[in-house]
Design goal:
alpha+beta
């Protein structure tokens, strides 16, 4: 066992703006790669486990592949239809590339992180640093050993193994850290060098992963899981959105809302949450988007996960679950600084909420599966369960799509109307047709009686007179016709009151300018594109679509909000429902538009 020395370990890795992070994901967990080749975030072994690399939120632990030339600039790209990322650095000596991925599809209890350093026509000189630190940096690595050129160790309950770094040195990490492995490596022109990191709470297999085998399997799995979608107005971006959604979806079907936690929507505002869980609504959006491009694998995952939760919990359906279908833990804080402007909040208060619209979104998803002939017996039972729940609960106050105070939110009720009408339109409904139609009519009539503004547009709630951008979506989903005066008035009100330069905000918080209260909501921008297209306003729809799909960084990842003043991403990354609506827009806006209203 080498004796640790204390040396200069090279660059530190402070947080960067979110647009500079790329995502690696294998369905069971995700990692963010920063612009200096640093893995700034990764939870192990699962999405909602403690982080083993947590510099993103002020924790410890590092795994970086960085050019030795300090004068370098960063870039990169995804290999098409995958989350295989190529970091590309331009140095004074020439380009340096690092191909990186989580072996795909991931095993539930073992992380396999692949990194391949590539030299082109000049040598690639890099420094590699590794210090796994479990429990958000609290657990040092110990029992660090090198045997036959392979390093092993433990951090808390996790066993780890690192192959490809036989010449690494064990050093003392700064700032009270444990053992840090460092390796200065030169790859000759035209060559490559593989590094493979494995982590698991279980005993690792006797033999390390063979990199060539793992890379070939990962490439083949991505090609099978994420085939090129039909031609759309943005086929490349649609394909990338499919890859992101697939990367966020576990083998059991649950899709997390985002890979990260507690990244602030606005600095110092306290709006930062843990999104490493599967929201029913988000999964429904993703499933419907998948159906629009014939991505049956993602559609089946969404239908299976949502159906199982409905059959399990019925009228007690929670808005969110872990990716494995368990209860979301309650909020708590850690002793970490958090991402700048945020705090270190984990868990989510959503576990105490009732959100009526999830039943409506679930019915819309199940109807989309029925239209694709992919519903199945569990799905048909789930339809009945959701209809029964709507019948029982539709007039109960709920937290709504934006998860705030309990009211009779208009969007929630109209989402249920859309879901009931979508299911009623399926073939073979039979005697249920009258019940579905009558219930939809009853909910719509009461909502219209209590929640219609004097100007003719939908109010947010009976006691909330403002307009809400979420109200654009139910008519698109079939709650009422696009030509209905209430639909037209609501679209007009959102356009006038909540849209600025083709960005759209959720609702008015107060009398301040919209951009001073929160970022533009990219989900709402894509909703606006769909709503304008429904009216035959093709040019307007395309302007909203193009503006919002450009609100990302070089890796093409979208967060929840976009700060239009500073042109920065805000909130957790990547936000699944934004990618879902981009995908659906790319498909829908490629169809022949309806006649103008």
């Amino acid at each position: 066992m080498p004796t640790p020395d204390t040396i200069d370990t090279g660059p530190e890795f402070p947080p960067h703006v979110l647009r500079e992070y790329a995502l690696l994901a294998d369905g069971e967990r995700g990692a963010l790669v920063g612009p200096h080749g640093d893995i700034a975030w990764m939870c192990a072994p699962r999405w909602d486990s403690d982080a083993v690399f947590s510099a993103l939120v002020g924790g410890s632990g590092s795994y970086a592949v960085t050019p030795l030339d300090p004068r370098h600039v960063w870039g990169g790209f995804y290999e098409t239809g995958s989350l295989i990322w190529r970091s590309r650095f331009i140095t004074g000596e020439g380009p340096v590339e690092c191909r990186e991925a989580l072996a795909f599809p991931g095993e539930p209890d073992r992380v396999v992180l692949l990194r391949r350093i590539l030299a082109t026509d000049c040598p690639a000189r890099v420094r590699v640093l590794l210090e796994p630190r479990g429990a958000f940096g609290c657990d040092r690595s110990d029992h660090v050993r090198r045997h036959h050129g392979v390093w092993t160790g433990k951090t808390g309950p996790l066993n780890w193994r690192w192959a490809g770094a036989a010449a690494a040195r064990s050093t003392r990490a700064p700032y009270g850290g444990g053992e840090l492995l460092t390796l200065d490596l030169t790859v000759p022109p035209g060559g490559h060098h593989d590094l493979v990191l494995e982590l698991s709470p279980n005993t690792l297999p006797d033999e390390p992963v063979l990199p060539d085998t793992a890379w070939a399997a990962t490439e083949a799995s991505w090609a099978r899981s994420c085939p090129t979608p039909p031609e759309t107005i943005a086929t490349h971006d649609a394909h990338h959105a499919l890859a992101v959604l697939r990367g966020l979806t576990s083998g059991g079907g649950g899709m997390v809302a985002a890979a990260t936690m507690c990244l602030p929507e606005r600095a110092g505002a306290g709006r930062n949450y843990d999104y490493r869980y599967a929201w029913i609504r988000d999964q429904c959006y993703a499933g419907m988007a998948a159906a629009s491009v014939g991505a049956t694998g993602l559609l089946d995952s969404a239908v299976g996960f949502v159906s199982a939760r409905l059959l399990q919990d019925g009228p007690e359906l929670k808005p969110a679950y872990t990716a494995t279908g368990r209860a979301v833990p309650s909020e708590q804080t850690l002793d970490l600084p958090g991402y700048p402007g945020g705090t270190d909040r984990i868990g989510n208060r959503v576990n105490q909420q009732f959100q009526l619209d999830t039943y409506g979104e679930a019915l819309q998803l199940l109807a989309a599966a029925g239209q694709s002939d992919r519903l199945g017996s569990d799905g048909r039972c789930a339809v009945q369960t959701a209809v029964d729940a709507v019948e029982q609960l539709w007039n109960r106050p709920d937290a709504g799509i934006w998860e705030i105070d309990d009211r009779r939110w208009t969007h929630s009720r109209l989402s249920c109307v859309a879901g009931l009408r979508a299911v009623a339109a399926l073939p073979g409904v039979g005697r249920e047709l009258a019940r579905l139609t009558s219930l939809a009519d009853t909910v719509l009539a009461e909502t219209s009686r209590t929640s219609l503004h004097a100007d003719g547009h939908w109010r947010r709630a009976p006691d909330a007179p403002g307009v809400d951008a979420a109200l654009l979506l139910p008519p698109v989903r079939g709650a009422l016709p696009g030509s209905d005066p209430r639909t037209l008035a609501t679209l007009r009100a959102v356009r006038e009151e909540l849209a600025r330069d083709e960005y759209v905000y959720r609702f008015r918080h107060d009398s301040r300018p919209l951009a001073e209260t929160e970022g533009a909501f990219l989900l709402c921008g894509f909703m606006m594109a769909l709503a304008e297209y429904q009216q035959g306003h093709t040019a307007r729809a395309l302007r909203f679509f193009e503006r919002n799909r450009a609100a990302c960084g070089p890796p093409g990842l979208f967060s929840e909000e976009y700060d239009i003043i500073q042109r920065q991403l805000r909130g957790n990354l990547p936000q699944a429902f934004v990618h879902a609506l981009l995908l659906e827009c790319a498909a829908r806006l490629s169809d022949d538009p309806p006649p103008p209203a």
